[in-house]
Amino acid sequence: MSTAAKSPPLQAAAERRDESMSVRFDQVGKSYGDTEVLRDFSIDIAAGSMVSFLGPSGCGKTTTLRILAGFEPVNSGDVIVGGDSVLQLPPNQRSMGMVFQSYSLFPNLSVFDNIEYGLRIRKVDGGARRRRSEELLEICGLTEMGTRYPHQLSGGQQQRVALARALATQPKVLLLDEPLSALDASVRSSLRDEIRRVQQTLGTTTVFITHDQGEALAIADRVAVMNAGRIEQYSAPHEIYSRPATAFVARFVGSINEFAVPANWATGDRLPIASGADDVIFVRPENLSIAARDDGFLQVKRQTYTGERTMLHLGRPGSENAQWSASISSADADALQTGTRVEAAVTADAALRLPRGEAEGATP
Amino acid sequence: MAQQLKPGNRERHGVTKFFAWLPLVALAIFILTPLLSSLTYSFFRSDGSFTTSGLTGLADSGRIVAPLTRSLIVSVLAAVVLIATVVPAVVAVHLWAPKMRSVLSILCTLPLVVPAIAIVAGLSAVLRNLASHGRGSLGMELNAILQSQDLPLVLVGTYVVLCLPFTYRSIDAGLSTLPLRTLYESSSILGARMGTTLWQVVMPNIRGPIMFSAFFTFALSIAEYTVAATLSINTLPVFLNTLSSTNFRGSITLSVLLNLTTWLLLASATLSASRFGHRSTAEPEANVANEPRKEAEIS
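Output (structure tokens, whole complex):
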């Protein structure tokens, strides 16, 4: 798929990474009856950046997006786009583009007409409309599809058209509401990369809603992990993974091991410590080193081969449960067969260390 | 390999087939016999010779023009008013008050259980009451406007009510097949107001149900006799009844033509419902599975 050279209007959009495209939620509160969905929700989204809202079902991420789009009113707080509050503006005056999970293309219109819909409403003349839609078709890899109707396209193609349609009006903010959820795995990953490429080409401020952590980490400049209507952590993807701020984030993003350790435990000491535990440390599987040892605290329960790496599932000797996991080089896996007693050490600083009381009860 | 039926089984199969078709054949005889008899009477004298005197008699007198025009205007208006009110109302309920769907459904189906003659009796009482306020009063003016022979609005209103259940059902079913909320939200976020969304997105996608409703309302309105006759408004069916005392063959000819027109309209309604409903069929929100095979074409 070729990337089109940017024409003047698209160039202008790419250069528009100014304050008019920044987004700020200021202590927003939202309830449905007695159910509080958002609580003092605040976030700053820089112009031209792509932010993922990641969280389990019901955490309030879609509500946040719908508030930004203007489809839901707020109970308190403010939503500011480009320095101005948008709460009083209806959706059709907010200058946003949105892509829905269910594509939501207009079935009675061809691909061209779908993309030109917003431009026609803005009374852009026919020639400019057609040029714009052709550029977007090329950017989104749909060059030959202009005259087709939505029912003649596959799911991935429809979502590309939806993306082109949302971008046609050069929105201040692009809102993506789980756009990949309805697609199968192979299409998901290619379209995810496409979305990122198009976003970077055009420099549109983008909010991407997903419950898939892989997607969120792969696509965004920053990730906001949400839980029960609040942001648990808002950081760059690598920080979310390697330095989770809370037990919830540590448990929700990626695989993690939890070990109860005494207050004087230090990196390099043996794991786990069964008694006198004051703290809980959270360690990624790849940050555990495993060595066979006859009096080891742990036992290999089973192995999962994933190619270059092998995942060892570890438990206490005599227990059926595999409570921990360690990712090791597959070359070392032969020496650590099922049933082998092992000891574990933490190779880097733990991702997170919390007092025991604080670590409990934050399960996603 | 096809299995051969034994002779006994074959006979039983034939009898079953015959009985399956019997109701349809009986229905066809029941409908076609009077129609064919009317058609024969319209165009053939008792000695068997062909005649068009029924048609020429109708054309010569010129008295048909006013009731025909009146009926056409009333029928078109009834269809337009019905579509223009029911579509936005049902869309609004689907979008913003889905819990009210059952209430709207009951309200719109109510005319089915009230006989037309009961509606007319009620209307007559209201009109009499309006007229009783005396010459020059607002009530009298209103009465005159409603029952004007040029444009009898009372008939338009009555036909709208009588056709409401069928139109509501058709539009409601059409909208239920659309992911209406996301279509509306997509259109809004692209800058469209509600009116534009309704006109450019919603209505084209329920063309089938709209066409069905329009044809159905027109067909029912142009052939309606009871209400118009009771309110003494000279529409085409009322004129047809009057004509039967002076030009019997003409009245039968007109009746046959009216019958055929109604049938054609109803057939158009049914055909349009299936034809226009075809291409604009949208995928319901849940049905969004993709096809990797097609995806490969552009990867």
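The CA atoms of residues 30 and 36 of chain A lie 6 Å apart.
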